[in-house]
Amino acid sequence: MRRSRVDDADELTTARTPEDGIDSSATGDDAGEPVAEISYDEQRYPARPRRLRPREQFRGGTLRRFLTDPRNANGANPSYVEWLVRQSMLKDADVLSRQLSGQPSMWRNPYARPDARRAIESTDVWFTAYPISLMARPGESFLDALGDEALWEAFEWVGINGIHTGPVKRAGGISGWQETPSVDGHFDRISTQIDPEFGDENAFRRIADMADAHGGSVIDDIVPGHTGKGADFRLAEMAYKDYPGIYHMVEIPREDWGLLPEVPAGRDSVNLDAETERELSARGYIIGELQRVIFFTPGVKETNWSATAPVVGTDGLERRWVYLHYFKEGQPSINWLDPTFAGMRLVIGDALHSLGDLGTSALRLDANGFLGVEKSAEGLPAWSEGHPLSHAANHIIAGMVRKVGGFTFQELNLTMEDIRDTGAVGADLSYDFVTRPGYHHALATANTEFLRLALTTALETGVEPVQLVHGMQNHDELTYELVHWATTHRDTVYPFRHGESTGGEIAETVRAELTQALTVDADYNLVFTQNGIACTTASLIAATQGKATLDDITEADVPAIRDAHLLLAKYNSWQPGVFALSGWDLTGSLTVPADEVRHLISSGDTRWIERGAHDLLDVAPDASTSASGMPRARSLYGSLARQQADPDSFLAGLRDILRIRSENEIAVASQVDIPQVGHPSMLVMVHRLDGGDRRLEDAPLQITVLNFSGESIEGTVRSEWLVPQSTAVDAATGDVVGRVDELQSFALELGPYAGLFLRLQGPDTVED
């Protein structure tokens, strides 16, 4: 059955700002007045709502009798309930967990602490797939295409050793007896089964076998924060067994249904406005306002709570519920601290299915920073970010994955402190939202100051690059929320542009400059809500090089775009951590014209312009769309096979970059310094090639030097880590680039968008 796709919302976004009257830094410290610290003891009693009669809190719903017509899709029909149970993730989880209980394999691996380097040593260069945009042969499924031996041969040739499939399990919802489409790019999961639209479990297992044969690994997704409105949610609405315990949902007694908004015809729920949220909170039903409303949209999503229509339960009682959803209305949030622990069982079961049955080596944790919520003091938003329960839940998930031999990475767009604290007990790796906006800004302005500030702040905070997945384009926007600077540290003062600026001022400046360069001066990239900019890496580069329209980008412009693209690959791969890139990167895809996806972006999700179809193996040369209907994007570089035959291609250049990365084991090194630079377009990163063992004080030093401008520059590399009379040698050519003087510096020249991987050698190891 063909189902439509809609947007991905897995990058976390701030939609309600301090200007809207919400203090989004209520749980953090900044340079201004101290904010209220949330603690269990001090805040519990002031936050307590007025006392309700016990009978009101635990009263059941209203009895409504139905004939047991076998066609009825409600709780009064045992056949319908049984049909839902057979499809539920909780049922599958119970079966899967029993299969692994008591097995010796559960005790063979360390699991207590995250280990980024152990994860990286298994796979460190990833291809991030997007199912609906990958072009395949006629009749070939997405998963069959990913298992193509020619594709893996090309990956091995260039140096890619991991593939992240993206979400491929059934998603969306169930209405009556029918499935409904995904509302979030298959991140609203409703089953452990592979969606037939993408293939089947055997095809997935063949990918794992193919990856293993080529020294690679397969990475899957789990979604510990929410599900779709599938069988589990429908059973929860019916108050069936443990299922209500999966979710943050509260039954509202019939006498208070007047507080709830009417659900329009054809809908099963409706979002609460802020006034209703406050009233229900005051009456003790819900914890009320949260620290932010992700994807805030007036009249659509004004709060994080929605009310259901009346639902008939398996006991014949009619109920209305209010449920929490951080993201869209169709993504009810999972409750990690319900007495049944049903939500925890569901998520762990999904993870075990992927690792133990499908053969994956790792899991991406989607939206895992929002697993704990707690009512705060009167007048303050509920504690929903940085909560200890989130840390505990992530520790359980990541520990279970490590216990069965895998690893996890998380995609959290939060402050550096939150990323540090979550990573200390949970996932082994985190997506690099720390510096990703910074290197885009450096390219757009030919100035690396903000990027250097982000890098040094990360090191000072305790977020090392080895803990991060340094990605270029994926299916999401170029995020420029700059959560670290715009929220907790909005009043913190930093040196910036020969003066001092607050974090909030820096965030506003960076956003404005990115918006001007990438969207105002170029009509083919679009702003995406308040979160960022919809663009591809190639279209971003084209905009920074002054191309106002897609028609302005000619074949003569490709070499300069390619060189800047390779510069970004050097930045991301010539530092510790994982390097990730997409099919849009490999083919140099541009955005598709907005008119070609007008029906998809009409609701405001402009990211569809960046998700054009791409043909990695040139298997569908005459097709204008992917099998899922995405229009083909214009490719500047061509297929992988075409690029392999061209020594000047992007892929050939990438191969050389990744060869240097592998030979020098930079992925597991230690970053020790981000020096000041002699030219604003220059970036210098100093690493110690110690394999992560900081006791190896005599380990060789490595220096990554990059030019983020389209002009040749002269500059000086200076760092207290450099030893006088040492020699800087180009790892690519073996040429001596410079000798360190007594001021611990050396001068060099860099061509447009050039980058050097230098090894520092002692004065006795290199001849003049």
Low-confidence stretches: 1-67
Question: What is the 3D form?
Answer: globular
Count of helical stretches: 23
Structural class: alpha/beta
The fraction of residues in strands falls at 15-25%
Distance between the termini: 70 Å
Q: Summarize the main sheet.
A: 8 strands, parallel, barrel
Strand order of the largest sheet: 2-3-8-14-15-16-17-23
Question: What is the average of the pLDDT values?
Answer: 89
Rg from alpha-carbon coordinates: 26 Å
Share of helical residues: 25-40%
Q: Count the beta strands.
A: 31
Give an overview in words.
- The structure is a single chain.
- The chain is of the alpha/beta class and about 775 residues long.
- About 30% of the residues lie in helices and about 15% in strands.
- It contains 23 helices and 31 strands.
- The strands form eight sheets. The chain has an eight-stranded parallel β-barrel with strand order 2-3-8-14-15-16-17-23, surrounded by five helices. Strands 1, 9, 10, 11, 12 and 13 form a six-stranded antiparallel β-sheet that branches. A six-stranded antiparallel β-sheet has the order 24-25-26-31-28-29.
- Helix 3 (about 80-85) packs across helix 9 (about 230-235), helix 14 (about 435-445) packs across helix 17 (about 505-520) and helix 19 (about 560-575) runs parallel beside helix 23.
- The termini are far apart.
- The relative contact order is 0.11.
Task: Kindly summarize this structure in a few lines.
The chain is α/β, with parallel strands linked by helices and 768 residues long. Helix content is 29%, strand content 17%. The protein contains 23 helices and 31 strands.
